[in-house]
Amino acid sequence: MNGVRTSGGRKIDPFGPKFRKLPKRALRRVGVVDVGSNSVRFVVFDGAARSPAYFYNEKVMAGLGQDMASTGRLNPKGVERAYEALTRFASLARSMGVESMTCVATAAMREAEDGPAFQARIEKKLGLKIWVIDGEEEARLSAQGVLLGWPDAKGLVCDIGGNSMELAEVSQGRIGRRVTSQLGPFRLQQIADEALSDHIDGILAQLADHMGTDHRRLYLVGGSWRAIARLDMERTGYPMTVLHEYRMTPDAARETIDWIGKSDLQDLRSRTGISSSRMELVPLASRVLGRMIDRFQPEELDISSYGIREGLLYEHMSTTLRKRDPLIEAARFTEKQMARMPGFGKKLYHFLLPLFPDITPERDRLMQAACLLHDTAWRTHPDYRAEACFDNVTRANMAALSHPERVYLGLALLHRYKNSRAKSRFAPLFDLLPEDEIKAAEITGKAMRFGAMFATDDPAEAGRLTLKPDNRLELKLTPAGRALMGEVAHSRFQSMCKSMGVEGSVI
């Protein structure tokens, strides 16, 4: 296909078995360098846990592939910027004791005639092994990054870089067909404006023939897509600025694309903080996105902050680890690092579970996460703990957590420390939840607020909660529980019962 290359069903394994069979100590701190057409990024993950903890993250907008479509060579200034960045990253990795360091290069390095020479220079002078991957492997790794963030992802992953755009199917934790194309903005800069739409449509038609058009969701990976999403937030006055799992309808995306085309880019930059080098590519990326929506007709567009780098981390994981819930793993990690009594969160969850006999799986995982996180803000000044909890969780680097779920979890933790949310400066974010969900989060929070009063080794040793059919909540105390059931505990118990709409009794 013209401008399009597919996987052809062959197995692609550029890293070899040694990459996936590293000694356990190498998994404690995993370093990844991504040499792209526009940016060079260095990320260090603090271990190959199911939910990535970013120990270090730095990006340089080198512009390695700028003008390559017309010259066939890497951009000279971009080469020096990239080499300088890689020199710094190699030094940082050594100082951090990063034993596992994987460097991948994508479209610019693999397609430029002087790409091999630059690769040899890096490897000889800096001692970094560079894996120059083909487009199909780039698509696979990007799709793995999406699966790291969305274990249940089902749809089409679309990763746009400077010189290429890759597509990959994901469903049931697996990656299907993959394809690469030359729809990167740097390449599109070489096409005359009057011919651009036809050029894009021609390539998209080939992509659609190979990948099909029956994908409900598009998972958008890449800085240009994230910039468009950030602009959509600005246009609509969206109250949260976390890009991961931000969702757009096709109609909203079209409106934003039209708005970008009519706006002053410098003004948009100043309002959103998008870099000039990124903003330069946004109009062309917008053209591609608009035509993609028309061709593939998705019902939803989901932004992923995870891509190739997270896909490489996913590569390290065992099948068992991949099946774990990223949200629960992140909450466990946070509890272990920051709570006064690590391990108490799980016991608190089981103590409170009788309050919610009809809890759904979706609500249950949020309750588990809330209990694990309920005591992780104890170092914050008491006057600010409630809102600090909300702020932390709504901005946290957590995967498998939609924006409404972030607000739900944040509200539950807010009410862990405070009965009322009135006059909260975060009130605009509450609008992301319907009223019944807000109430449910309040009940979860007040339940934790009460349960925390039994912060012994196990709250079950203090008593047992039973929700009776006649709308009564019974708390049956043990002798140890009676000693702990003071005035404050009684007050919190009654506040919880009031929010639940039940009559409470203590035995």
Walkthrough of the structure:
By secondary structure, the chain is α/β, with parallel strands linked by helices. The protein folds into three domains: 26-132, ATPase, nucleotide binding domain (Nucleotidyltransferase, domain 5); 137-309, 2-Layer Sandwich (Nucleotidyltransferase, domain 5), CATH 3.30.420.150; 325-453, Hypothetical protein af1432 (Orthogonal Bundle). 50% of the residues lie in helices and 16% in strands. It contains 24 helices and 15 strands. The protein has helices at residues 17-20, 68-71, 76-96, 107-111, 115-126, 135-149, 185-188, 193-211, 223-236, 250-262, 265-272, 276-279, 282-296, 308-316, 319-322, 326-338, 344-352, 361-373, 385-395, 403-417, 427-430, 435-451, 479-484, 487-500, and strands at residues 4-6, 30-35, 40-45, 54-60, 100-105, 130-132, 155-160, 165-171, 174-181, 217-221, 247-248, 300-304, 463-467, 472-477, 503-506. A seven-stranded mixed β-sheet has the order 1-9-8-7-10-12-11, sandwiched between helices. Strands 4-3-2-5-6 form a five-stranded mixed β-sheet, sandwiched between helices. The protein has a three-stranded mixed β-sheet with strand order 13-14-15. Helix 9 crosses helix 10 and helix 19 runs antiparallel to helix 20 (403-417).
